[in-house]
Amino acid sequence: MKKFVFASMMCLMAIAANAQVLTAKTISKVYADLTSCMDNSEFVYNAEQKDDVITALCVYSKADRRLKPVRRFEYTYDASGLLLRRVAYRWNELADDWLCTGRHDYSMTTNRYSVEYSRWNVRADRFDQSNDKMTYTLLPCDTVQQVCCYHRERGTSAYQLKFQMDVPALPVIDDTLMAGGMKIED
Q1: Residue 182 confidence (pLDDT) above 60
Q2: Is the pTM of the predicted complex or chain greater than 0.90?
């Protein structure tokens, strides 16, 4: 549990520092980055596409000179390419099929980007009510001002704030960022 909490916090810090609204282009860029450095990786990635948009991504491990399915992610976007939903699956060797594990739902308002997580309920054959939520408060220039994490216990209707972090703004000078007195250019 401690490892999970630590890993989650590190992930949150990375997301907050590099937060952006997820789109079809973002997913394609992540896939391109993953596949460009697979030589020494223990994983292989395969994307399913429709009209040059990634609709599913499968992760395979390299085991005993064969590829073993590990994870699958299915993506749904709106007409503008904004990510609306990501459904996650894990490989079930006994059933020789993908087993749904959870879903992330993404939404956007004028100044807020939200992500909600729902677990798959095998017995009920449906997603449970979402139990975790992250909100990103956006500034007019689409940078993140604040990240908040919420959790809702099963059987309750209200989310409880678990973590809140203000994201420090980096000054923009002539389209370059200044961080700690150091000039960073693209």
Answers
A1: no
A2: no
